């Protein structure tokens, strides 16, 4: 069968997964009357809850005698490690751009990776039926983006389609018939070249592993594109590391190919197809699976280095062990090492004491997803404030700078610019209208200045602003940046919080807990209205007397507490504070540092 391999890339929420839903429906993957779920490719619980794609996943459809392997990629730069690996498996990309928003930071990120690999893109302007859509402007911005990223003449001569993924149509013209996705299918077959690997079917078998998984029945599995040769079940293969070291020799127990939303066992894999192999025990991502006669590995794409680090430690609070069943540092270490094995964008280091681990990655969202997955598995953790990773070059200290693109109502633009360019040491690079009553602000801001800014930004813009960010470059260290301005309210007692005590404390600041909640000494229960920390007693009840008087029996009416999400909590804490994460609770607490550790942390921050 004729074969095409294509990846769909786009910014967050520009409609990748919805478009794949329609391609699956219209290609006849579902039988008549079959129950169909929305966003079928977002199979992970967290993906469905958050509405974003976290893990790259492949599917396969047939169209008029041609098999098209489609890879759905994450749109967020924090999960860029998935994108960098997956793009090496395909021969073309379908770039989806929202016709109203135009190219956004993550569009730039994934497109730069695709163009660097020499892939020829198809541009699909999605959501052209939205009232605010401006397809002509979006198309011009896409062309400018390609030119700025160094696309060659062939890549700049890209075909364009106009589409509405949710309504299930794509056309060559903006005022086309708007019936179905056939124009996209035809363009993929016409524009994307068949895999070059097909010509190497007579050579010894070679395949680069790009994703790692496990199956309860067949064990460890690796997915990748067959670079050369053919493979049958029962064949003996060997695994080579990136440097060419022999890892293991194993017998292939199963070969699975993508067919619709599932995978089906096949007897033979051929060059050019994307398949999953079982039988290995040690081989992992970026290893080469090949015939025993081969000694040279397939070069793997370099992965961008991490930009932030977070310390994962055991939960040593007085409430430790009440919710979770995985609390030992040994168990936490095993889980983190397993994550680093399948996620090449994460690096794990042990700390000198051995009870905490420094996890380095791309951003706060990536760390938040890892922590959320671990707490759902029954882990209890204490998490430190994210720290930016610095570089030394030529005796100069460099720090990561991020490009921030903000769409905000005109009335709030002044407050946003003041915060970014003032205390956060950012540089404003562009400011232009972005529709009626909206302004688009582009700035280059140190990563340190953006830690904890999201909540402040939403407050400043009354919840109407949209902030997108992406790694831009390394730049000389810009000096100290002020962290959180407010102090915190710290419990001085162990026990259960009392409504009367919290009611009296409300004038001191915002509360993070409600009545009848378990608290302990050192736990952060609220934000102080001033810049200093304050120890308070949330257990203090009302003194009872038999004297009745006007005003002594006032009704206690508590203001609802501020409930922060996991990412908000991690971004909120200061250097001497921790987030206590359990399967049922997220708490903040103070970490009292000894003088040596305080001195070391001050040195790290400069």
Summarize the structure in words.
It is built from 15 helices and 35 strands. With 606 residues, it is an alpha+beta fold. It folds into 4 domains: 193 residues, Rossmann fold (3-Layer(aba) Sandwich); 94 residues, Elongation Factor Tu (Ef-tu), domain 3 (Beta Barrel), CATH 2.40.30; 86 residues, Alpha-Beta Plaits, CATH 3.30.70; 86 residues, bipa protein (OB fold (Dihydrolipoamide Acetyltransferase, E2P), Beta Barrel), CATH 2.40.50.250. Strands 18, 19, 20, 21, 22, 28, 30, 32, 33, 34 and 35 form an 11-stranded mixed beta sheet that branches. An 8-stranded antiparallel beta sheet has the order 12-11-17-8-9-16-13-14, covered by helices on one side. Strands 2-3-1-4-5-6-7 form a 7-stranded mixed beta sheet, with helices on both faces. Helix 9 crosses helix 14. The longest helix has 14 residues. The radius of gyration is 27 Å and the shape is globular. It starts with a strand and ends with a helix.
